[in-house]
From TrEMBL:
Domain of life: Bacteria
A Pfam match: 2Fe-2S_thioredx
Listed SUPFAM superfamilies: Thioredoxin-like (SSF52833)
Name the UniProt record assigns to this protein: NADP-reducing hydrogenase subunit HndA
InterPro entries for this protein: NADP_DH_HndA-like, NuoE-like, NuoE_dom, NuoE_N, Thioredoxin-like_sf
Essential cofactor(s): [2Fe-2S] cluster
List of residues binding [2Fe-2S] cluster: C90, C95, C131, C135
Lineage: Bacteria, Bacillati, Bacillota, Clostridia, Lachnospirales
PANTHER family attached to this UniProt entry: NADH-QUINONE OXIDOREDUCTASE, E SUBUNIT, POTENTIAL NAD-REDUCING HYDROGENASE SUBUNIT
EC number per UniProt: 1.12.1.3
C-alpha cells in the first residue's frame, strides 16, 4: 500500500537547531531575509519540515502561514527529506512515450512510496522530472548522479539491488 505522507520522522539535532538560530539572528533584520533563511535552513536540515518552519516563524515573527506559502510556492524547497539514494524518473515527452510512466509506477510499487516521498529507512526518495537531457537514451532515470537509460520495468529490481 502506498503511503499518503512521508513516514520519516523529524530528527533534527541540537547542533542543527543552534546553527539555524545563528543564521536567523544573523539575517532576520535584513530586508527580504526570509528566502536566505529558508535556503540556509534547508542546507542545514536537507529539507524544511514544519518543525523547522515553526522555529523560523517564532524567531522572526513571520507568520507560519506565510513561511509555508513561500516553501510550497518555490520548487527549490522540499517539505520531505530526500533519501541517501535520490531516484528521479524523467517524465518528459521522449521518455514518457517510451514507457517512463510505467517505470515510475513500478518504483512507487517497489519502494512503497509516492513521488516526493522518502522510504521510512531514509534510503530512497523518488521524484519525477521533466528532462535530464538524455532523450536519446529514453526512457531514463537517475539515481543520485548516475544515469540509467533505455529502461524497461524489468530493469528496476537489478538497479535497486545495486543500492541495497
Amino acid at each position: 500500500m502506498l503511503s499518503k505522507k512521508s513516514t520519516v520522522q523529524f530528527n533534527g539535532t541540537k547542533e542543527q537547531e543552534k546553527e539555524l538560530l545563528e543564521v536567523i539572528h544573523e539575517l532576520k533584520d535584513e530586508k527580504g531575509s526570509l528566502m536566505p533563511i529558508l535556503q540556509r535552513a534547508q542546507d542545514i536540515y536537507g529539507y524544511l519540515p514544519i518543525e523547522v518552519q515553526k522555529i523560523i516563524s517564532n524567531e522572526t515573527g513571520i507568520p507560519l502561514e506565510k513561511i509555508y506559502g513561500v516553501v510550497t510556492f518555490y520548487s527549490q524547497f522540499n517539505l520531505n527529506p530526500k533519501g541517501r539514494y535520490r531516484i528521479s524518473v524523467c517524465l518528459g515527452t521522449a521518455c514518457y512515450v517510451k514507457g517512463s510512466g510505467d517505470i515510475y509506477n513500478k518504483l512507487m510499487e517497489k519502494l512503497g512510496i509516492v513521488g516526493g516521498e522518502c522510504t521510512p529507512d531514509g534510503k530512497f526518495s523518488l521524484d519525477a522530472c521533466r528532462c535530464v537531457g538524455a532523450c536519446g537514451l529514453a526512457p531514463v532515470m537517475m539515481v543520485n548522479d548516475e544515469v540509467y537509460g533505455r529502461l524497461t520495468v524489468d530493469d528496476i529490481d537489478d538497479i535497486l539491488a545495486k543500492y541495497e
